[in-house]
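sry for the spam today, last one i promise. struct tokens for design, 347 residues
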């Protein structure tokens, strides 16, 4: 059973490696390019194709063609939502969109999920206990689902500030989801986590190692959307629900941390939250004297550490798991406030 996700992992990784150069050529031909100086944070040396989304979606299509038996109604809804996110992201990569149409695409993808029953349900516990009505519980479930999906989708997009960061986080988070869902007896989720892990490995190679293209909004947002969906679908029935809900939050703790840091910093400085600036965790590490390689490594090492702690919390009693989570949350807050006071390359 533990070897089950290996085949989709290898297939998706090899496919994304093979399709990377055609995606690069297609993005170049369609003139989907990131131009230096088009925004304050765009300081790369030459126009670079935004081919990450094209590679991701083409690899997903190949996987669905080769492994159709791993498609159920929930996964079909996830893939349909991912296509919507990709389409709006590609539109943004090509033309540049304001916040409103981006949000429209994310809400549309979320509605597709909710209509198929892919949503959080934990507020139902309070209606079962008689604290709130079932109707109110469902409204709260939907609002939390929207907040989670839109938040994580944007978090991966926002943290994509340097080659390899977002793709590396995709590798790490999906690998942990693969292991956690396999141990929890969710082979369907383990399979698609392995697929995303393999695709992210391919994206990492083309974005970081070969340095051929950027992920773009179409790539980073789609990774974030798929990770958010894995967080919803992950449901370890053999573990206590009072502690298992912590796992998806911690597995995606680094992009959540980075987004919180950026939002807090920009609100305090009365800067627009949606604008691209060099004030992310990576940029602050650079301003502190880290090399680019070491800054990226530090971000990924933090994700590995938090992910490992997340899985460890599954084996703790509920009270200890919640205490552990609150301590991790408090530690993250202290680091966030400390980093927020550090200079950025723009200050």
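last one done:
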């Amino acid at each position: 059973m533990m070897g089950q996700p290996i085949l989709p992992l290898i297939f998706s990784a090899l496919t994304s490696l093979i399709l990377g150069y055609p995606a690069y050529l297609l993005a170049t031909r369609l003139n989907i390019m990131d131009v230096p100086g088009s925004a304050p944070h765009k300081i790369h040396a030459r126009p670079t194709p935004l081919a990450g989304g094209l590679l991701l979606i083409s690899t997903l299509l190949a996987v669905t063609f080769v492994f159709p038996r791993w498609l159920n109604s929930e996964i079909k809804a996830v893939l349909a939502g991912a296509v919507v996110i990709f389409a709006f992201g590609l539109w943004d990569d090509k033309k540049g969109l304001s916040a409103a149409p981006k949000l429209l695409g994310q809400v549309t993808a979320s509605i597709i999920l909710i209509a198929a029953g892919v949503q959080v349900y934990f507020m139902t516990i309070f209606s079962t206990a008689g604290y709130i009505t079932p109707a109110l519980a469902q409204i709260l479930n939907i609002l939390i689902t929207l907040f989670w999906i839109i938040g994580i989708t944007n978090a991966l997009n926002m943290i994509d500030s340097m080659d390899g960061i977002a793709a590396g986080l995709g590798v790490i988070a999906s690998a942990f989801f693969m292991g956690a869902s396999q141990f929890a007896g969710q082979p369907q989720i383990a399979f698609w986590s392995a697929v995303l892990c393999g695709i992210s490995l391919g994206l990492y190679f083309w974005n970081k190692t070969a340095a051929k293209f950027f992920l773009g909004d179409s790539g980073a947002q789609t990774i974030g959307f798929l990770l958010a969906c894995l967080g919803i679908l992950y449901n370890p029935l053999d573990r206590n629900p009072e502690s298992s809900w912590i796992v998806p939050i911690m597995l995606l703790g680094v992009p959540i941390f980075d987004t919180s840091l950026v939002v807090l910093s920009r609100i305090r400085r009365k800067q627009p939250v949606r604008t691209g600036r060099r004030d992310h965790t990576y940029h602050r590490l650079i301003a502190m004297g880290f090399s680019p390689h070491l800054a990226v490594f530090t971000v990924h090492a933090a994700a590995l550490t938090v992910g490992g702690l997340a899985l460890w919390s599954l084996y703790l009693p509920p009270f200890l798991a919640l205490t552990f989570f609150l301590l991790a949350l408090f530690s993250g807050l202290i680091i966030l406030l400390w980093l927020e006071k550090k200079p950025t390359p723009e200050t």
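Strands lie at 33-34, 48-49. ok im logging off now
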